[in-house]
User: What shape does this take?
Amino acid sequence: MTIVTRFAPSPTGRLHIGHAYSALFAYRLARDSGGRFILRIEDIDQDRCHPEFEQGIYEDLTWLGLTWETPVRRQSEHMPDYRAALDKLMDEDLIYPCFCTRKDIAEEVARAAAAPHGPEGVLYPGTCRALSPAQRKEKMKNGLPYAFRLESAKAETLLRGRNKWPLYWHDRGKGRQEAVPGILGDAVLARKDMNTSYHLSVTLDDHTQGVTLVTRGEDLFYATHLHRLLQELLGLEIPEWHHHPLLLDKDGKRFAKRNDSVTLQYLRETMGKTPQEVLAIAGVS
Ligand code: GLU
Assistant: This one.
């Protein structure tokens, strides 16, 4: 089977040394096995994404010596696809509108005697799951903005009823995993300002683009549990995953786009580094 990997940055800032590591990780796995490497622009958040950062991605990756297939898929050009997937889940009654603000959620969590917790902290307490159809209608009529959340327990029940449970996935670093889809709680599948979310679009795109090996940082390991559930609900192909360790700076912190001194542009233009030197900093030789 031909391996298809991808690197899927968001053009919300310049790429940094951690991105270089991640991009090379995917690129080399494809290249060394005679596979294909895809670059995808994850720009659903149009307020935070800018064309100059997209150009920066092409510039930086070219400088590092990477090549990729064209045309490059831009998520912002496929919003109807994400909406169709959302509609499918809605038809199965697995989605509910959530009117909560961050403040509402924090207050509810503080009030609740036992707020649900996941491995990454507090989960959405489910406030809007309990709203009646009439209450939902009323809030919508009043113009309250809403997101759409996946009712994870219901999704699990549905799959159990279809004998599609438990769900497994293979991680090249960690081995066979049993998915715990409720691990992120009732995740947002469509944000208030758009008809999709990271989770929905990334899962659909990896399927649409025929990605067979999803590589990304360990920070997204738990997201994979949810993605595996979405694949099953939407009838999508199941790839393999490889979550790689995150590159840390000398203080043990993750590199951040807002820290200009670690961007590839800065290292190239201001520090005069060569691609080889940058790759050495990233621990890739
Ligand atoms: N757009 C995501 C990011 O920049 C990519 C996540 C993924 O590879 O699934 O973090």
Residues 8-10, 42, 202, 216, 220 surround glutamic acid (CB under 6 Å).
